[in-house]
Design a protein that fits this description.
13-stranded mixed beta sheet; two-stranded parallel ribbon; 35% helix
Length: 550
């Protein structure tokens, strides 16, 4: 791959856009019909009439989940101590041990975040994880392990949105999902916090690593193989997976990685620690904690809800404040792209992909807000995204804008934020490892989101592939109604994901034909048949975006 310019910027605007959109759309989806999953009522197994108590010994103490003919579930297992009081903005510490069996049949609290109606209790005591295993799985079975990292723009998200029981049961794997700290509680950077040596600005990434260490220490008791762990995630979860590939503290904690719509090579996928700390100092001052000597103690004394409402003072592509990881410290010494360029990443096989119509999800919200109906609105949004590069971007997409401002917006955001960074990420990774690239492209992907009457079909929108991999409901798809072709596609995708977790190759008896990318183009996943998307780079104008550093 030829060298391309790289333009680090001061914040993670792409994660912020995702969080803002998903918060609003998920709230509307819940209000219009409710979510099939909620804390305290996670999945289907714990309420099965066939459920029987199942006891498993962990390092911290015994836990009592449920065993059913459809699989086993263990919910809200603490992988770290509550990050409260003096532990707020510290690396996660081990949880306290216990002697009597701990109830593991109810979901835990959400990490503090913007409220979504019906989503459940929030608490800083939220560093828990859920474990699902196939029926009959016993200690020492050495089944492949798949660890899910949820998305939500690093500002929203929780384990109870996702039920991983079906992929565990159907594919014979152990699945794990963890909560991690969000927003200011997960990403605040400040010189006073850095002086403590615990990873200022990257506490969420440290949470994910602590959960992976828990998996390494405990998963064999649930039937999993601690030496065969795959991490996978979507959106901010995908960026997390991509960043953990380059994080020194995560090395050796996983053997495979799946990135869904979260390639971390875009300029704004991480913020420099210096810029993050400058914003943190301003935020602390806003909260009445301007004295550098007492700032850490002052911030820790504030209620979580007050901290979360404060502005992070980081300039994003939309000109709005946002949260993202910081590089230049102990957790991410380099910007992820620089680490990939220098070969400083875990040498593990990777699946990396995007969706054909990622930004139609964001278009939907903008249309609800009365935007993208005029040339003025279109140019304003593009300007907020790209600042001084706006004239260049507008000129490149002028042909599409003449036909439709809405579609031009979709193309600009899909190409710049997802498609072309994924192509760059793949090219850098495949110098050392096998990369299996995909583009999910169901033009009628299942969903349960409210839609603007002026938006048109959502097509293969951002996050739409999740239902196809998991085959269980979540807010974006509260009721899964596949037609036969979609069901076949979903079965292939789930088998590929699990087959990859099993061997590092997404190839099973029921789903064959996916070879490493090697620059040929991603595999296009469609209900009417899969084929190589050899026109991917041209269609997403990646030569243009590469020249701008994407």
């Amino acid at each position: 791959m030829a060298a391309v310019p790289f333009r680090p910027v001061s914040t993670g605007g792409l994660q912020a856009r995702t969080a803002v959109v998903l918060t609003a759309l998920l709230a509307m989806a819940v209000s219009l019909g409710g979510c099939a999953l909620r804390p305290g009522d996670v999945g289907y197994l714990v309420h099965s009439p066939d459920a029987q108590p199942m006891l498993v010994a962990t390092e911290a103490g015994p836990v009592r989940g449920v065993a059913t003919p459809q699989g086993n579930a263990f919910l809200a297992l603490p992988y770290a101590a509550a990050p409260v009081g003096p532990l707020r903005w510290r690396a996660p510490r081990p949880p306290a041990s216990w002697v009597e069996p701990r109830d593991a049949t109810r979901g835990g609290a959400l990490c503090p975040q913007a409220a979504i109606p019906g989503s459940g209790k929030q608490s800083e005591d939220c560093l828990t994880l859920n474990v699902y295993t196939p029926a009959g799985a016993k200690a020492g079975a050495r089944l492949p392990v798949m660890v899910w990292i949820y998305g939500g723009g690093y500002a929203i998200g929780y384990t109870a949105q996702y039920d991983l029981s079906r992929i565990a049961q159907r594919q014979g794997v152990v699945t794990v999902e963890m909560n991690y700290r969000l927003g200011a509680l997960g990403f605040l950077a400040h010189p006073a916090l850095r002086a403590e040596g615990d990873g200022s600005g990257d506490y969420a990434l440290l949470d994910q690593q602590a959960a992976l260490r828990w998996v390494r220490a405990n998963v064999s008791a649930f039937g999993g193989d601690p030496a065969n762990v795959t991490i996978f995630g979507e959106s901010a979860g995908g960026w997390s997976v991509c960043e953990q590939l380059t994080a020194p503290g995560a090395q050796g904690l996983f053997q495979r990685a799946i990135i869904e719509s979260g390639a971390c090579t875009a300029p704004d996928s991480a913020i420099s620690q210096a810029a993050a700390e400058a914003g943190g100092v301003q935020m602390a001052a806003d909260l009445g904690c301007s004295d550098p000597v007492t700032a850490a103690a002052c911030l820790r004394a504030l209620p979580a809800k007050e901290v979360l409402k404060a502005m992070p003072h980081r300039r994003g592509l939309l000109g709005k404040d946002s949260w993202t990881s910081a590089y230049g410290g102990t957790v991410l010494p380099l910007h992820p792209r620089r680490a990939l360029e220098q070969g400083r990443f875990a040498p593990v096989p990777v699946i990396d992909g995007t969706n054909h119509d990622e930004a139609r999800l964001f278009l939907d919200l903008n249309r609800f807000k009365g935007m993208l109906y005029s040339e003025k609105s279109y140019k304003k949004i593009i300007s907020d995204f790209f600042l001084d590069q706006t004239p260049t971007v507008l000129n490149e997409y002028a042909d599409e804008a003449r036909r439709s401002y809405a579609q031009a917006y979709v193309d600009v955001v899909t190409d710049s934020t997802f498609a072309c960074p994924a192509l760059t990420t793949n090219a850098l990774l495949e110098r050392r490892v096998s990369v299996y690239a995909y583009e999910f492209d169901d033009p009628a992907a299942v969903n349960g989101l409210p839609r603007s009457p002026f938006t048109g079909p959502l097509k293969a929108f951002h996050s739409s592939e999740i239902a196809y991999v998991m085959q269980t409901p979540w807010e974006v798809a509260p009721a899964i109604r596949f037609d036969p072709a979609q069901r076949a596609l979903s079965d292939h995708m789930q088998a590929w994901w699990a087959g990859f977790a099993r061997s590092g190759i997404p190839d099973t008896a029921s789903a064959r034909g996916w070879a490493p990318d090697r620059g040929v183009g991603p595999l296009q996943l469609r209900p009417d048949g899969n084929s190589t998307a050899s026109d991917f780079a041209r269609r997403h104008r990646c030569a243009f975006w590469n020249a701008l550093g994407y």
